[in-house]
Amino acid sequence: MKRVLALITLWALLLTGCGGAAAPSSDTQPGSADEPATRTVFAMDTFMDLRVWSDQGEKALDDAEATITTLDAALSVTNEESEIYALNHASGAPVLLSDDTFTLLSGALALSERFGPALELTVYPVLRAWGFTTSEYHVPTDAELAALLPQVDDSAVTLDAAAKTARLPPGAEIDLGAVAKGYAADLCAAALKARGVPAALLGMGSSTIRTIGAKPDGTPWRVAVQAPFEEGYAGVLSLGEAAVNTSGGYERFFEENGEIYWHILDPETGHPAKSGLLSATVVTEDALTGDALSTALFVKGLEDSVALWREKRDFEFVLIGDDGTLYVSEGLKDAFAPYGSWEDAPLEVIAYED
Amino acid sequence: MKTKHFLAVIALIALACLGALIVLRLRSAGVIANIYQDGTCIRSVDLSKVAAPETFTVTDKNGHENVVSVEPGRICVARANCPDQVCVHEGWVSGGTRPIVCLPAKLVIRLEDKSAAPGADAPDAVVG
Amino acid sequence: MTTKRITRDALLTAIALTIFMVEAQLPALAPVPGMKLGLANIVTVWALFTLGPLDALMILLGRILLGAVFAGQLMALIYSLAGGLLCFLVTLLLRRVLTARQIFIAGIFGAMAHNTGQLIAATLVLKSLAVWYYCPLLLLSGIVTGAFTGLAAQYLHARLAKSGSS
Fold first, then answer.
1. What stretch of H or E contains C1?
2. A224 and A353 share a domain?
C-alpha cells in the first residue's frame, strides 16, 4: 500500500510523457531541413548517434545502419562468425576477407606502419591480459607481458591483395577496434552522400565524430572536446566537414593500489601509455586516419606528435597535457575555443615552423 | 514573548522555504531527461519539476538492471548490474550534450534543454 | 528515583513507542524521506512541559532505542537520534519562554529542528549536500505537523492539569 501510494504520487510528480522533440525519430518530421532524422545504433561496443538533415533522412539512416551492422559483424573479435575471429583463429593459415574488411585492414596496416610503434593493431592479446576486453581488470605480471609482447607486431601480418586474403603468425591476434569506428564513419559518409544528403552529424560512439556538409542554419558545426576525468568540456571546435577523433585515458580505466591504469597501451611496453597526455584530439579529412592518429598521438606524447604533424601537416590536433595545458596546432588556432573553467587553462599554439 | 511574535517568525520561515522551493525549480528550468531503451524513449523526466529525489529501476528482457536516481535538476545511474559500470561512473549529470550510456543494457539518458534559446552555445556533439 | 517515577516514565515510553510503531505502519505522506507526522513527539513535548527535562529525555531515548530495535534498522537509529536530540534541545530552550498556552509553538520549532537534525545526519552519512534539496520541503512540513502534534500536547497538558494528575 505504502509503495503503491508513493509510486502514484511519483508518477504524477515526475512524468511528463515522451514529448515531441524528445520522441524517437519516427515521430518527428524527417523531411524538413531544420529537424534532423535521428537514429541510435548499438554496435562496435559503443553507442552511435546519427543525425541527418535531408528529405531522404530515414532511407539514408537505413543505409548507414546497415553499413555499420555489416561491418560490426565482420570485425568483431568475440563473435565466432566474424572475419576477424576467423583470422585470429586460423593458426597461421590465410583467410579470405570481404572487400570492406580487406580495404580497412590494408588501410589500417599502412597507418600502423606510418605511426608505429605507437599504433599496433596486434596489441589485442595484451589488452586482454589487462582485462580491458572483459572489464575484469587486473595488472598482469611482467612475465605475462613478456610472453605476449613478441606477438605484438603488425609487420608480421601479411596481405595478398590479388587473393583478398590475410594471414597472421600463429598466436598473434588482431583487433581493428582502434580504427573500426573511423572507417565505419567514412563508409556511412559515402553512403549518405550517395543519397544526396547535404548535412549530417555522425556520432560513432563518444570518441569519433564525423560531420558532413554544412549545418543547415549556416553556422559551423560545434564539436566539444570532453574534459578529461571531469564533467564538462575542455573546449569547443567550430568546424566545417571534418572528422574529429579523441583518445583519452579517462575513457576506460581502473584503479589499483592508488594507480590509474587506462586502456590505451604502449605497444612497446605493454603498459598503459603514460606520455604526459590526458587526451589527444585530431581533426582530419577522413575518420579512419583520425581514429588511428588519436591513439598514436596519445601514445607518442607531445614532442613526437608535433614532429609527426610537421612531417606532412595532414591533420590538426588539440592535446591536453597532464598538467592541464592545452596544446593546439596552428591550423585550429581560430577554430578552437576553451570552454568554461578551461578558459583560464594555459594554452599553447604549436606553430608549423619550430 | 507574545504568541504573535512566534507566529511571525514561523511565517517568515515558511515564506523563505516557499521562496527556496520556487528558486530550486526555476534554477533548473526546462531540462528534460529522456530515457531510451534500445532507441525507444521509455520515460521522460522533467528535472525542473522534480519535487523530491527519487529512484527507479529500468530493467530489460535480458536481465539488465539500471537504478536511475533523479534529484531536482540532475540525474544519474546510481547502480547497475552491468560489468563495466561506465554508466555509474558517469555520475550526476545536470546538462550538456554528452548522454549517459549503458551499453550492455542499451540504455541511454539524454538531457534536453528546453529553456535554451536556439543557436545558444550548446555544442552539436561531444568527442572524447 | 522513586519507583513511581520509573513506572510512570516506563509507561510513557511504552505509549510513545506504541504511537511510533503504529505511525510507522501508516502510508508515507510524500515520497520525501523524513517527512512524517511525528506523533510520538506529543509524548516528549508533554513530558518536557509537565515532568521536566530529565524524564522527557529518558522517555525520548527509550523510545528511539527501542523503536530502532523493533523496526530492525540500525541506520534509522542515527537519523532518529540526530533528529530527536536536536528537537529535544530546541523544545527545552523554548520551554523557558513559553507559557502553557504556547506549547504548540514548541511543537512547531521542535519539528523543524527534528527535520534539520535528520538532514545533518544524512549529510554526514551520505557525504553529500544534495539532501538539503529537501530542506525547504521538510521545514514546511515540520511547521504543519509540528503545529498538529504541538497542539495535541498542549491540549493533553491542559486536560491532565485540570484533572489534577501528572
1. none
2. yes
Residue C32 touches partner A, C-beta closer than 8 Å: no
| Residue at C118: amino acid letter | Q
Is B19 in CB contact (< 8 Å) with chain A? no
**Chain C residues with at least one Cβ partner in B under 8 Å:** 30-32, 97, 101-102, 105, 108-109, 112, 130-131, 133-137, 139-140, 143
> Which set of grid coordinates corresponds to residue B66?
539500471
Spatial distance between the Cα atoms of A256 and B85, rounded to a whole number of angstroms: 16
Q: How far apart are CA A72 and CA A63, in angstroms?
A: 14
Query: How far away is chain C from the Cα of A17, in angstroms, using its nearest Cα?
Result: 20
- Binned at pLDDT 50, 70 and 90, residue A24 comes out as very low
Q: Is the domain defined by C3-163 classed in CATH 3.40.50.2300?
A: no
CATH number at residue B74: 2.60.320.10
Q: What's A340's domain CATH number?
A: 3.10.520.10
What are the beta bridge partners of residue A210? A202, A243
Identify the pLDDT of residue B122: 79
Q: Give the model's pLDDT for residue C123.
A: 86
Q: Which three cell numbers stand for residue B108?
A: 541511454
CA distances, C142 to each of A2, B71, C36, C120, C133 (Å)? 21, 21, 8, 15, 15
The nearest alpha carbon in chain C to A7 belongs to C31
Structural domain range at position A229: 220-354
Which ipTM value was assigned to this complex?
A: 0.82
Query: What ranges do the domains of chain C cover?
Result: 3-163
Cβ of residue A13 closer than 8 Å to a chain C Cβ: yes
Please write the tens of the pLDDT for every residue from A65-84: 999 999 999 999 989 999 99
Domain endpoint, select from A174, A194, A209? A174
Please tell me the distance from the alpha carbon of residue B13 to that of residue B22, in angstroms, as a whole number: 14
Q: Provide the sign of the torsion angle of the four alpha carbons C138, C144, C145, C146, taken in this order.
A: positive
Q: Which of A150, A174, A198 is the last residue of a domain?
A: A174
What count of CB pairs under 8 Å joins A to C? Answer: 12
Q: Which of B7, B17, B54 sits opposite C140 (nearest CB)?
A: B17
CB contact under 8 A, B20 and C135: yes
pTM: 0.66
A257 and A351 share one domain: yes
CB-based contact C31 A13, cutoff 8 Å:
yes
Contacts of B113 in chain A (CB under 8 A): none
Strands of A101-183 (E only): list them: 158-160, 165-167
Calculate how close chain B gets to A168, using CA atoms only, in Å. Answer: 30
